[in-house]
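Standup, Tuesday
Yesterday: got the pipeline producing structure tokens again.
Today: sanity-check two examples.
Blockers: none.

Example 1:
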Amino acid sequence: MNNFIYENRTKVYFGRGCVKEFLTCLAKEYDTVMMAYGQGSVKKNGIYDKVLNILMKEGKNVVEFPDIMPNPTYKKVMEGVSLARGNKVQLILGIGGGSVMDCAKAVSLAAGFDGDAWENFWERKGIIDFELLPVGVIPTTAGTGSECNGAAVITNEEQKIKTGYDYPACNPKFALMDPAYTFSVPREQMVSGAFDSLSHIMETYFSEPDEQNVSDEIAEALMRNVIRNLRQAVQDPRDYSARSSLLWDSTMSENRLIKMGKKCDFTCHLMEHQISAYINCNHGQGVAVLHPAYYRHIYRDGVLKFARFAQNVWGISADGRDEYEQAEAGIDALENFIREIGLPATLRELGMKDKKQLREIAESCHYSPGGYRRLDSDEVLQIFEECF
């Protein structure tokens, strides 16, 4: 394994009823709390009222930061910054999915910085040498793993760029993770979120080093777990065992643990980020469209790992196949699974209407240094056209 330094400062409270049991003590030292949430679902399902009642009972001054959209924009972040500064917020409490949690962390960062936060922390990786507003999160979806990392993926609409870095200083101070809260999301969102978890794990797995290492073995177990429990959750969305496993799979995929000692290949995510910056599509659905095509382009450069993926994750016997045929069988199994769980297979299904846009989007994609092979914009365009 390669050298690494591991850090994760988020304290997790996991299980049914954890919000009621622990939120009071976790918010005790903060008088003014900003409740950050999305476009109304937490109000419809009752989660908002449960959290608000706990805070009001303790006499907190609650500041509302609603209407955080999927793929949050930098403009929305700065709206939150203005609220936080104007109301002297002491704690940001993000209640929702990955977009809400990312936006809460972005507000925390930008509110503490005296300058152009986008230029200094999103256009490039910056240095955080100032105090941030504390963040706590209550996830209502499983998929992004945002509850246990410092990443805040934000879209700059003017520049048509969607990006973000993982800053350990931006990690939430605490995460209250009640799997029952994820019951409220629609089936489509549950499936796309779980596939996002699988995508995170694959992007770590398919990178050097490829010799036996603990990170890859954990990744294989997590991939099998996501596949098994997503199938079960599709059959019975209220299966607590399956949904709790998917929620923890999500955390494990992005709490940095399996990335240790790995180069990591985020090419698929980076391609999807730019597609999303142009057409504002669902992120998990976007990576589902791209993964099989991308892997068919690069598997020969990491064929032994792809063959291992087929056998150890999908249970495909190598009998009668060489490593290239075995690798292809694993990619076929991934593609068939995507169809099985009802995710889209084309960019058109995501809302892409103008094929002429693909060249511009391909040329805007960033390079991931951890991949088996570096793609140029022409090959990225080829992948997009294959997915159209």
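Example 2:
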Amino acid sequence: MTFEYYISQGADRLRCGYTTGTCAALAAQAAVTLLLTGVAPASASIRTPTGILVQAPVQKPALHGHTATCAIQKDAGDDPDVTAGALVFASVQKQTTSGVTIDGGRGVGRVTKPGLDQPVGAAAINHVPRQMIADAAQKAAAACGYRGGLRVVISLPAGVALAAKTFNPQLGIVGGVSILGTSGIVMPQSVQALLDTIGVQLRMHRAEGAQSVVLSPGNYSKEFLPKLYELYPGLKAVPQVTCANFIGDSLDLAAQAGYQNVLVLSHIGKLVKVAGGILNTHSRFGDCRAELFTAHAALAGASQETARALMEARTTDACIAILDGAGLRAPVLQSLLHAIQRQLSRRAAGRCAVGAATFIAQYGFLGATEEGQRLLEMLGPEARS
């Protein structure tokens, strides 16, 4: 049975899926029924926290002694979810204490660092899935006339291998994946899921005492960091969080987490967009790199010929080369960095100090905004001479 719930993104109609938390709740419901009746249901169904009904076939039912186990296959819909197709198992036993006790088994990670949804030592099953599992188990038990306690162990055997493809190792979750979901539904290519991950990392570092953080969009920045450490060795002690294209949203999340200092480190190809007020740097929200270089070059006195060459440039590397040829790199970068600082300060709105530093592979470190330079000097005391 296919989960038929769709959303529209632009011209596309995309099928939603359901979270590992929903799978765990469905599996728990089926396993409780098997434990108390001796017969596994063909399917299980629950309403997610958003009220959407999810029904899924029950797989691999097994009853061994006093333990019943059932599995539900993760359906991620059209989302490229790393756990898509994986089986989520619930094993259920009666217990003498009242209520529902929930733990993680094979392939479900364990929390080793503070600042996450669950305390250190607990299975990485977030609070909403825990409530969903408990509710599903109790409702299934009540339907069978049982009012006693239950112990539920959630496992995801493939999670041991899949965890390496997630952020869990960086978050301090070891041994497997997390059982997640606040709505119970997977939205295709979910922006919220990415922002949730960024927020978790920021809160984790903050819980460990960090007052400052480096936000960087991705691989280019990670590759450049060792070179920046050579210039500012103190930065090695500052946690780095990948923010993808979400510079503005990540700055908001950092401010909400209570950071005092935020340094945005980005390739000029992304950071130049911020000068134009584009704080989500994905190309779907605009690509005005050439236009911004051209406008700021004009402010610096560029000739019409230089302006035309910048407008026709296909890459920011080419823009820098053109500016070098015209002897305008320094004033144009200074103008752009000033505009970038203005936009970042506007977004931070006094909640934290924020600045930016930028680079390009071919030329290395290009410079920093006013506040970015101050942060570099403060956080990396062995500054370059």
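Quick observation on example 2: The two ends are 66 Å apart (CA to CA). Residues 192-379 form one domain.
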